[in-house]
Amino acid sequence: MAKLTVALGNYRHAQALIDGGVPVDGYDIEEVKVRPIIGAYRRMIRNLEFDVCELAPTSYLMALQEDVALTGVPVFLNRRFHHGDVQCAAGSGIRVPKDLEGRRVGVRAYTVTTGVWVRGVLAGEYGVDVDSITWVVDDDDHIEGRTPGNVERVTDGRSLGELLRAGEIDAAFTGNAGTGRAGAPTAGWTAAAEPAAGGATGDEGPYPLFADADVLGHDWYLRTGIYPLHSVVAVRADLVKADPDLPTALYAALARSKQLQVADDPEWTELPRLGLQARQVGGDPIPYGVDANAASLGALVRYSREQGLLDPDFPGDPHRLFAEGDYPSA
């Protein structure tokens, strides 16, 4: 059988595919471990280094626009809401989203998908002029050439967390999109120390922009149906051309792998964040397929257009974003 090199993050709901418990018809799977998996994104986009690779959704959309020889399978391995991803510097005086206008906000790279989602929420829900913000970054975009003029690169080696603690930026994203990591996601990329949180007033340290983030994220989902995507599976286009059934086979195997995980842990107790999100969305916390994710895909395309990452005529029909295949909601 043909071999498929596969680079995915460490997801229990995909493990059965990786370890051979669920086969991909006609193929042997060879896992390529890249930790953190973010380090595989640019290797796939720039060099087509793997046969199958998880990608950030925004990077995938931008790659399609640039005619990178990739095609997608509508499997979204990771999801999260984002109202809790912005923290403000102690003494910044930021109390409401509009206070971010004219400020300096840290994000690992401008096109990271977390940044796209948060800017979309800030602009669409709270009327924030995100173009008035100076975005301070410490890493390169996976696809270059779309960075606007209001982006500033850290040049002295300090992390976004250090800048936030020093008050040299007014706010920043948390986790891998900001203060939880430093620099490019290379091998051995280690977590930076997140700035210690202060009280509600921010007198003692950084504080969240939204104190009740889980409630706001849930409310936003109920009103909009948008459930932010954070990974998509991409395949080298030449392999799909040689075997048009490959996307369907991959989809079926990944769906079956998830079914096994759910059968083993139906409440997602071993993955608490997904367990919380299952309660928020009232069902599957990682739905696969195009139709089940149409609202989220449409929103991501819309936000990416509004932020200048995609051209205005980039296709908005979510079915056009993926290889032809049989993708029942799963």
From TrEMBL:
* Lineage: superkingdom: Bacteria
- Provide the protein name: 4,5-dihydroxyphthalate decarboxylase
High-level lineage: Bacteria, Bacillati, Actinomycetota, Actinomycetes, Kitasatosporales
